[in-house]
Amino acid sequence: MSNTLPLTELFASSKGATYQCDTTNRIIIQFGEARVSLRISDFLTFKKRVDSVDIHTMIFNTDDAYDVEIIDAPRTGHLFVLSLCDLIALRDLLAGTRFVLDLNTLLNERIYSSVVY
C-alpha cells in the first residue's frame, strides 16, 4: 500500500483510525499494528463478521477458547486476533466509520438532488 495516496480520515478512536482513499476507492483500517485496505463491499462484509461475534459468550464462558476471536479481513490474507477489549474497540471503530459513510452518502444525495433542476 502506497503512502503517497491522498487519504481522508473517516473516523478515529484511541485504538485506531479509518481512512478513505478516493484514488483506489478503498477503506483503510489502521487498528493497533494492523493496516488493511478493503473495498467498500469487503469493508461491509468485515463489519458484519465483527458484529456477529457473540460478546456475551466471550464474557461469561471461562473456557480458554473464548478468550480471543480470530476474524479474517476479506481478500487481504490478514487475520485479526482479538481479545474482548480489542473486539469492542474494533466494533466501535467500524460502527463510527459506517456512520460517517452513511452520513456522507445522505449529504451528497441531498446536496446534488437539490442542485438538479
Topology, please?
Blueprint (H helix, E strand, L loop, with lengths): L6 E6 L3 E6 L4 E6 L2 E6 H12 L3 H6 L7 E5 L6 E5 H32 L2
Helix pairs in contact: 1-3
Name of the top-level CATH class: Mainly Beta
Strand content: 25-35%
The figure for the number of domains is 1
Largest sheet: 4 strands, antiparallel
Poorly predicted spans: none
The helix/strand class is alpha+beta
Shape label:
elongated
Describe what this molecule looks like in 3D.
The structure is a single chain. This protein has 117 residues and is an alpha+beta fold. Helix content is 43%, strand content 29%. The protein is built from three helices and six strands. The protein has helices at 40-51, 55-60, 84-115, and strands spanning 7-12, 16-21, 26-31, 34-39, 68-72, 79-83. The strands form two sheets. The chain has a four-stranded antiparallel beta sheet with strand order 1-2-3-4. A two-stranded antiparallel sheet has the order 5-6. A hairpin with a 6-residue loop joins strand 5 and strand 6. Helix 1 packs across helix 3. It is elongated and about 60 Å long. The mean pLDDT is 92.
